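Let's practice the habit of predicting before peeking. Look at the sequence and jot down your guess about where helices and strands might fall. Then scroll down.
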Amino acid sequence: MKTKIISQNPSMLVLRLLFLLLTVDLAHAELRVEITQGSDSARPIAVIPFARAGLSAPLPIDVAAIISADLQRSGKFAPVEQNKLIAQPQTIEAVNYKLWRMAAVDHIVIGQINMLSSQQYELEFRLLDVFKGQQILGFKYRETDKTLRIAAHKISDLIYERITGQKGAFNTQVAYVTVERQVGTQPKYKLQVADTDGHNPQTVLTSTQPIMSPSWSFDGSRLAYVSFEHRRSEIFVQNMQTGQRDVVSKNAGINGAPVWSPDGRQLALTLTSGDNPDIYVLDLSTRKLQQVTRHWAIDTEPSWMPDGREIVFTSSRSGKPQLYRVNVNQGDRAQRISFEGDYNANAKVAPDGKSLAFVQGNGNVFKIAVMDLQTGFVQPVTEGVLDESPSFAPNGSMILYATQADRRGVLAAVSTDGRFKQRLVLSEGDVREPTWGPYKR
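Done guessing? Here is the structure:
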């Protein structure tokens, strides 16, 4: 529960070309965030350690440290390191705005945590504009040991939105696939979900056969994915709350690349029509299939436009993988939209529908690039050798993708302009197939 302190206006190709077998035990492994390239336009901000009242024992988490790390991970903020803070005021009255102006800090975050009862807390924060010399945002929350971290992410979201004008995406989740492999045993694949900072990993599914292509429903309540647990590809939909899972496609041949429609009622997917993979749309309530493309080539990797009327997909109809766009209800009148390079594939549409993130290949080098759909301008935003599986944050500010570092599979994220970069590395082993979840409802 939150109480506002002030009232202002805060304001494949074909089931993927290769599925890598990974080789270590990942039990209880968390993703660790490493900033690999900062942004020179990041705003300076000071997050002061929160005051504590009525607390004799240490808190389970450091709320201020989480907020600071969140803001830094966005690439838009440069939090002052705690040991370099020029002061640590805990009330508005104790803030010396002139001092902070001289230190060239734009904003200050102060807060307090009060013990209400055993494992019950009141959490308060205030955002101060240094140059205006006033509070511009503030809330109170009632939380427990189990919800303090979520509250910290919510605070980060509010601060991010108030300053940038763009909704924050810290209180969201990512899904990804890992695999354990031990000598003399079958590999163990895991579909996992974690917070965007890598904490709180949860296993959705464990299998001795590959799991691929996870996709979130629009409300985050369900995951669709491909499983080979019956020694052939099948598409499942799993409820994230109950764990109930249903097979929604197990046709002969390929069942791959499921992607939820914006309204959550349909899945776009790749099925084999004769000998050729084509794009289909599956109505999840009636289980009726609609064939969208009909071509001798390989059509795969669909991605919905936000209006739910069009799909962007990968096709080999021009001889090599390129991106096409098609209206779902007008038959196969696909239009090619990628022209730079011999390999353009696995596109994801940005939340606002104005751009695409996709894999652009040149020889044996595969990078993530962004295309402006109005102008067709393409900008590479990564420099890896094997970058794949891009996925936008729900606010469109960052792109999550899979890559390699030190011969290990890791996740990485890059700002849409390519200026800010980070890695999400498992403490043990490798990770692939990331997808960024939607805003929580």
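How did you do? The first helix runs from residue 63 to 73.
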